[in-house]
Structure formats: structure tokens, C-alpha cells
Amino acid sequence: MRTVVFLHMQKHGSSREAIQAAERLGYYTVVLTNRPTLVAQRSEFPDVHRLLAVDLDHLASLMSHLQSLQEEGLELAAIVSFVDPYVSRAALLARRFCPVRPRLQPILTMEDKVRTRKTLTGTPYNPWYAVLDRAEDLNLWLDQVTEHLPLVVKAPRSTGAKDVHVVCSKQQLAKRVHELIQLYPGLPVLAEEYVSGPQYLVEVLAVQDTVHPVALVEQHITLHRGHPIVDGYALSASPPTQRTNSLISAVTDIVQRIGLRSGPCHLELRQNSGQWKLIEANPRIAGGAMNRMIAVGLGINLVQETLKLALGEQPDLTPLWRKNVYTHYVSCTQAGTVVRVVGKQKALNCPGVEAVYVKPRKGQKVRPPTSLGQRCAYVMASDPYSLDKARRVAVRAASCLQFQLAEEGAP
């Protein structure tokens, strides 16, 4: 039986939709996860034909499980992951067990923000940056980088804006760097020039050395206590030609320099004084609502086409239509335990709304976000003629959602 193995998944979003796509394509689906709660909720995932608890950080254990699947007679057609930090691990295993052997180097480069910067040394795409390699050099390093404030401080392997801080003073810089040193002892800390201006996310699928920028999405970002959190994504049916052309040119050049010949990635960039600066690169489609947003706006199921590529098939990236789509995310402004969420059906009933998703369940704890994974809900809306109308509809519908919380410490 031809099988696709997934390393981990989220309950909702791009990684889950990839499993559903694999089932539609006629494959047996196996998910290996190190999250016990997923296994306990097994009945919620009918598209997952087998869900196994595995230590994803233990390579020998993973290989043993895959060999057992083969001994059962399952043909491992692809091993993939749509979840950080397992993309490179899946590629490594695919090279051992599957017919299509992805290149590992570009994935490893994009998974490490310092390595990405070094790969792009000498190009115009890097903002100014500095790496703290040894904690012992901290005081001297702080003196050297302070003149470049404001800065963005990151852990090299941060994803979803986790452990990413915008700092405007030497005191803030020292505090955040100390925190990262404590969280990730022995690993470097990356500080980058803060680049102002609109930020764009570009979803890319490289196919046989050709870079295909599938979707250009503007990100609307709010600082939550120094953490840059995306609370809006805008996919335009007719983006400005001049900006689009220069952005696509920059993205194509960056992807080629990183060495990605076949596979997915998404880049985030900002334009500064007419020059595009790479904010970060990731070797997968963006999570959350991104795949569905592209399907609504362009008629392309990007995770399905990505799977086809991993399976040795030819993906079809031809847009079936072009609609304006806006996805508005909702975050909680205080910490507490969810008692009830009201207004979901009311939001769904708003004309133009395509989807409403609420993440936390009753009894779960929420807090103001420090990463994208801590956002609580989204509303997606579309309009064939006006992106601004799609945005207004999404924001208005999102205002229908109300999170009733029990404050932390309350009985």
C-alpha cells in the first residue's frame, strides 16, 4: 500500500490539510508524533489512518518505526513534515527510505537563521546583523551593536515569531539577550537591524530548478509587548505590478542562492529604500490559515501540489481564479482559562466570510501572544473586487467573537 508518512501535525491548518490531501490522492497516511494529546484524541482525525507516538528527536527510533512499516508491506512513497522543526528530519529520512531524495542543505540553511544570513553574505538582501557566539563576550558585543538600535533579537531556530523581540534600548537588548542565553545555552543569539515598512510573505514552490512564487501576501503586524505578531494577512487579486515584479525578482534570486531546486518554502521580506530585505526564510508552507487562504484566493491547494512534488509527480500551480482574501487573527489581551467562546456562528453568517476558526477549547489557558501559535482565532473573508472590503468584513466578523475567561487564580 502506497503510504505517506508525516512527522507530526497540528490539529488545524496547513499540516492537517496536507494529510487530508494525501488521503484524497489515494495514499495511506501515517503520522508519527511526540505529542501524547494527539494520540489521546485519535478519533478526531479520521483522515489519519495510523497515528503513532514516537520520539521525533531520536533518529534511530524513527528509523526503526519506518522499517517496521516496510516489514508490514507498506510502500513508503514519501516522508514529509509541514511542522517546524521536523522538515529537515523528514527530508533526511526520505533520502533513506523513499524514491524521491530531497536535497538537505537548503532546508538546513533555512531552518537556521544565522546560516541563512551567512549564505546571503555579500547580497543586498541582508539587513545589518550581528551574531553573539559566546555568552562570555556579551558586554563587549552589547557595546558594539547598541549604535544600531532599534534591533530585532532572535534565537537562530525560532519559528512562528517565538523568541523574537523588538528592542529599542540597550537595557531591553541586554534583558532579551540574557533570556535567550538562558533558554538556549551554548547557542548563538542573532541581532538584526529593524527594517520598517510593509512586510510580505511569499509562498514558493521550486520545481526542477524553476522558482514558482505562488502567492504574495501582505502581513499586518502588531507589536505585543515587544513581540511582532501578525494579526492580518492580505492576498490581493491584483497587486501593484512594479512592487510585485521587484519582489518576485528578489525572491527568485534568494531561493536560488539558498540552493532550493525542488520543494516548498516561504520568505518574509520588507522593502527599505527601494531594496527588499529578507526578514526570514522557512522550508515549508506557512501554517495556520495560509493553505486555505491560497485555495480561496487562487483555487490552488498548495499543500496538495507540494505533496505531488514529494511523490515525484508534476504539480499544477495554475490559478483557477483570483479573489481578494483577508484573514484577520484574534488574540486575547489578558491571561485566563476559557469558560466559553461565543459569536462563532454569528461571524460565519456575515456575507463574504469564508471561514472562522477558534483554537482554544473550554478549560484551556490563554494569554496575550508572544508567538503566532498563541493567537486564539481567525476570520477569513473574500471579495472579488475589493481587498479593502474583504478586510472590513473579516475585522467586523471577528468582533463577533467573545472569549469569556476565568482569570488565573480564580476558583
Write up this protein:
The chain has about 400 residues and is an alpha+beta fold. It folds into three domains: about 1-100, Rossmann fold, CATH 3.40.50.20; about 130-195, Dna Ligase, domain 1 (2-Layer Sandwich), CATH 3.30.1490.20; about 200-405, ATP-grasp fold, B domain (D-amino Acid Aminotransferase, Chain A, domain 1, 2-Layer Sandwich). The chain has 13 helices and 19 strands. The chain has helices at about 15-25, 35-40, 60-70, 85-95, 105-110, 115-120, 140-145, 170-185, 240-260, 290-300, 300-310, 345-350, 385-400; strands spanning about 1-5, 30-35, 50-55, 75-80, 130, 150-155, 165, 190-195, 200-205, 210-225, 225-235, 265-270, 275-280, 325-330, 335-340, 355-360, 365, 375-385, 400-405. The strands form four sheets. It has an eight-stranded antiparallel sheet with strand order 13-12-9-10-11-14-18-16, sandwiched between helices. A four-stranded parallel sheet has the order 3-2-1-4, with helices on both faces. A hairpin with a 2-residue loop joins β9 (about 200-205) and β10 (about 210-225). The N and C termini lie far apart (about 50 Å). About 40% of the residues are buried. The model has no long low-confidence stretch (mean pLDDT about 95).
